[in-house]
């Protein structure tokens, strides 16, 4: 049974939602898009997905209206991926996964991977998205993000490993 056909067998919104975003790779692709990546190679580097796996996930996200492809180069033709309104609307789910992961999936003493600062008042928001200083509920667009040194190094190491593997293959 195809994914779309399976969605039609239930009115359960959770089941239908997981048909669109219910696997690790799709969630990681969306994470990268929220972090500002838009090109296939950078998304592949940071998710560590195989090219085939990533292409499949991006095509599914495009078919489901979560992302749109936009050409950024004509010869050879290359695309970047941008979140649609529907894709941007999924962000609270990623935010909740982040909060849950920071709370329950870390060792004692591990630093927070990404710190968010409220642009309006300049204070760190923490994990709940309610500014502790001004009391405002904040959306992603209200925040500046700063990667921890550990997370930034992890991401840079992936880029270096990818570039080294690509150089060896050439």
UniProtKB/TrEMBL annotation:
UniProt xrefs under PROSITE patterns: HTH_HXLR
Tagged with keyword Transcription regulation: yes
Molecular function in Gene Ontology: DNA binding
Keywords, alphabetical: DNA-binding, Transcription, Transcription regulation
Positions of the HTH hxlR-type domain: 12-109
InterPro entries cross-referenced by the UniProt entry: HTH_HxlR, WH-like_DNA-bd_sf, WH_DNA-bd_sf
Pfam families on file: HxlR
Keyword Transmembrane helix part of the UniProt annotation: no
Stated name of the protein: HxlR family transcriptional regulator
């Amino acid at each position: 049974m195809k994914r779309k056909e399976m969605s039609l067998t239930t009115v359960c919104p959770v089941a239908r939602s997981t048909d669109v975003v219910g696997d690790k790779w799709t969630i990681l692709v969306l994470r990268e898009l929220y972090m500002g990546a838009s090109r296939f190679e950078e998304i592949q580097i940071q998710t560590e997905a195989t090219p085939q796996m990533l292409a499949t996930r991006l095509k599914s996200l495009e078919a489901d209206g979560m992302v749109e492809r936009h050409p950024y180069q004509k010869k050879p033709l290359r695309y970047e991926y941008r979140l649609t309104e529907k894709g941007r609307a999924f962000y609270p789910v990623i935010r909740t996964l982040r909060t849950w992961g920071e709370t329950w999936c870390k060792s004692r003493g591990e630093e927070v991977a990404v710190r968010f600062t409220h642009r309006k008042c300049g204070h760190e928001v923490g994990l709940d998205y309610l500014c502790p200083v001004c009391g405002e509920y904040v959306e992603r667009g209200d925040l500046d993000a700063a990667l921890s040194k550990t997370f930034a190094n992890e991401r840079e190491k992936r880029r270096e490993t990818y570039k080294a593997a690509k150089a060896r293959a050439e």
